[in-house]
Amino acid sequence: MEKTAALASHILQGIGGEKNIQRLENCMTRVRVEVHDDDQLDVPGLKQLPGVSGYVKQGQQHQLIVGPGKAAQVVDAMRAQMRGETTASFEDAERTKAQVKAKYKAPMSDALRQLANVFIPLIPAFIASGLITGIINILKRPDIVGDFATHYPNLLGILGIFGSAVFAIMNILVGVNTAKVFGGSLAMGGVMAGILSSPQLAHITLFGEALQPGRGGVIAVLLVVMLMCWIEKRLRNLLPGAIELILNPLLTTLITGSVAIVALQPLGGWISEAIAHGASVAIDRGGLLVGAALSGTFLPLVLTGLHQGLVPIHVELVQAHGYNALLPILSMAGVGQVGAAIAVLMKTRNDRLKKVIKGALPVGLLGIGEPLIFGVTLPLGKPFLAACLGGAVGGALISYWKVATVITFGISGLPLALTIVTGKVMLYLLGYLVATIAGFLFTWLLGFNDPEE
Questions:
Q1: Which of 6, 27, 82, 429 is catalytic?
Q2: What pLDDT is recorded for position 85?
């Protein structure tokens, strides 16, 4: 904890102190800071701090990569060292200075980030569901555990409930999170999702066709709840305060629910069916070429923020087919980084770089690639390109072998092997090995300028 507190103190000094902080938060691996004055930041000094493996700027945020689990600890320590209730003020602080767009920021990245924020809180549930399903698949195999399934059917049944629970309430969770992201009432977001999922819809005929409960999946929920948030905000401004509390939820439910049933749920159904069908056809028929293109370009998408638009596609694939053929392909992008980092480790004479790689490789093997990307391959240039090429090789094989997982997103690397569908696990591991070797070889051949101490 002393090292964490020391790192927090150094970061506070490097960003100009607590008075320069406008917003402070963390994700899984990064300390995220928005400041009043960029000129007060000592970016070179921050990059050199022991424990900081990389720096990137996205939009208004300065992000320091400190590793999984460590990010939350560092932010907690920073807040503990700051005076007063400053964290509350971050949320309400006025934007006092226009920020220059980040170097790699792409159009629509902010909108896609909002979309991703709907699903990011669900990652722990997705991970648990996928791993439990993987355990069930193992326990059902007589060649591994013998007659376990015959002797313990109730245990498998209970585990099945645990593993599928997130999908049973998926639409409700997405409805609540969408309302939170877009500024609506959380309960109303859940209600809208409940309307779309209600079994009673099957007993209603509209325009000569029976309605379908849950049609459109999360896409329909997103469309409907975003409309609900817009209507709720408008009514809040239009209705007198004395009756707004009563009439707003009533009118919002009646108006949004009607539009949802008549128009938005069918629209969401067409979109979700097109997404699931299109992605499946592209992977099934594209083979090596599509797999290489998807995996090879994924990390550049991450740098621009456009990768966040893929999140609903992952969810739709699992909802439509029960498996996700896209995630194993994209995970190869991170595997290529592992091979590239090993090559850099073997060739570099820079002690600090070696230390960064040794600290980042273990989590890189587990699918958390940000420390390797922003701390090693991207700053060096050519190794990043080599890693993308290595990932493309692995992605091509994974696509050709039609490897799929039962999880939506949130896990990759070696742990993803536990969630791969039966009969494809060894092919996934072989693809992992090939992508690592390819990333290593491309990096070795392309070389890089070894940084001085």
A1: 27
A2: 40
User: Packing angle between helix 186-197 and helix 241-259, nearest 10 degrees?
Assistant: 30
The reply to whether 229 belongs to the active site is no
- Give the three-state DSSP class for 55: strand
Helix, strand, coil percentages (3-state) for the chain, rounded to 5, are: 70, 5, 20
With both helix axes pointing from N to C terminus, report the angle between 265-296 and 326-347 in degrees, rounded to the nearest 10. Answer: 30
What gap in Å lies between CA 391 and CA 295, rounded to an integer?
6
Structure tokens at 41: 């930041």
Average pLDDT on 116-120 reads 81
Q: What is the DSSP string of 114-176?
A: HHHHHHGGGHHHHHHHHHHHHHHHHHT-HHHHTTHHHH-HHHHHHHHHHHHHHHHSHHHHHHH
Please list the residues that pair with 54 across neighbouring strands: 65
CB 358 within 8 A of CB 345: yes
Question: What's this model's pTM, rounded to 2 decimal places?
Answer: 0.71
Q: What angle do CA 325, 326, 330 make, to 5 degrees?
A: 130
What mean pLDDT comes out for the span 170-178? 92
DSSP state of 261: I
Total residue count of the chain as it appears in this document: 453
